[in-house]
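Example 5.3 — Arrestin C-terminal-like domain-containing protein
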Amino acid sequence: MDYIRQFDIRLEKEMYYPGESLLGHVILHTVENFKLKAIRVIMRGKAEAEWKVIVSGDRRTVKDEQTFIDDRNIIWGKEGETSILPRGHHSFPFRFQLPESCLPCSFEAKACTIRYFVRVTMDIPYASPPQGVKYFTIIGPHIDCMDEQYLKPLVGRDRRSICCFCCRQGVVSMKALLERSAYCCGESIRLKADIDNQSDEIVRLKLKLVQHVGFVIERGVLGLNKENVHTVLEYHGDDVPPNQKFRFDSKDSLVVPIMPPTLVGLCKLLQIYYVLKVWIELEKSGEDLHINFPITIATCPFRIPNSNKQPNIDYDVCCDHVEGGMYIGPEFQLGQVYDGSLGVEDGENIVLYRPVYVCVRRSHQLATNTNTTTTTTTSSTNNVKNPQQQQQQQQSSSISNNELIANNNCEPGPSNRYHN
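Solution (predicted C-alpha cells):
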C-alpha cells in the first residue's frame, strides 16, 4: 500500500524471562488519511514439529504443535467500528504479561522449533490486512545450579580384571567424582578421577559430553519419535603405563559451550538432556570401563555462598555443532538481496533472528589462568576439544599424592601421575 511508508514493531528488549512484562510499540508512518477498523496485536508462543516418513512406500509429512501462549489485544480502534487514521507519524504502545509458569526456551531445529513472537495486523476495510511479525527469545526453564539436588556430588566406580586365557594379569579400576551435576553455559565441569592400572597394558582416560534430543509427534497409538545425538565436547587423556596410578582434575578445562538448557517435561514435542560419559580405554584387550553422569544445563549459574562476587551473565547464540545452533529457518535468512547494507553485495546472508541462551563470561579470568599455568606447568597436557577443535588444551600444575576424598570440599588441582 503506497500510503504506508513505515510499518515496524519495536520491543523494549530482545529476550524475556517468564513472568516479565513485554513492552513494545507499533511504529506507523502514513502519507494519507485512510479508513482503519483496528490495529490488533497477538502474542503467541508455540512449538511445531515436522518431518517426513515413509508409509506403505509413500513419503508423507507428519506434523504436530503445542501452544504455550496465546494473548491478544486491540491497541487502536474498536471492534465493529471504522475510523479514520490521520496521516503522519504514529507510535502505538502495547503491553503483555508473560505467564509465571515455566516456559520452554526458544529453540530452532530442522525437526522442531519453539518460537515466541508478536504479530500486528492492520484491519483495513476491503483490503488485504498488512501484517508484521517480531520474534523474541524466552529464557527458560528456571533451573538454578544452587538447588540442593544439583549441589550433591556424584560418585561412580568401575573395575575390571584383565585376564589372558585362564591367567589373571591384573586389575584396572576407576573412581570418578562429579562435584555438582548442574552447570550454566560458560562454566567448567568439575570432575575428578583416580585410575589405578595394575595390569600389564596401557590404559587411557576419555571423557565426552553428549547432547540427546528427542522429537515426538502424537500420531496413532504409539506416536512417532526420532532422536539426535551430538558430541558437545571431548577429552582424550595421556597414556597410563602398566602398574601406575593417574589422578585427573578437570579444573577449568571442560568449559560448557553455549547451547540450549535441559528441557524435560515442559514440551510434549521436544526433550533435551545431557550425559557426561567417562571411560577408560584399554589398549590391548579392547575392553572399556564406563561411568555415566547426568548433566543438567541450567539457566541460573553457580554462586559462591556468602560472597559479593557475582557471575558475569551474558546471552549469545548456540554453538553450531549441537541441536539449537545447527539450523536457521529460511524465513530468518534475508539471502543475497541488496538493500543498501554493507556486506550483502559480497554474497553474505543476513540472519534476521536467532534465539540466545544464558552464558557466563569468563574470558578475562581464563586469560589470566592460562598465562599463569603456562609459565609454571611441568605436567603433561590435557587434550580437550569439541568436534570443531575450537577449545585450546590447557595445562595444570602438579598436586600432592593425597588420596581423593569424595566430598564437596575437594580442593581443585591438576592431573598427576604417581607411582606406588
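Remark. The chain has two helices and 25 strands.
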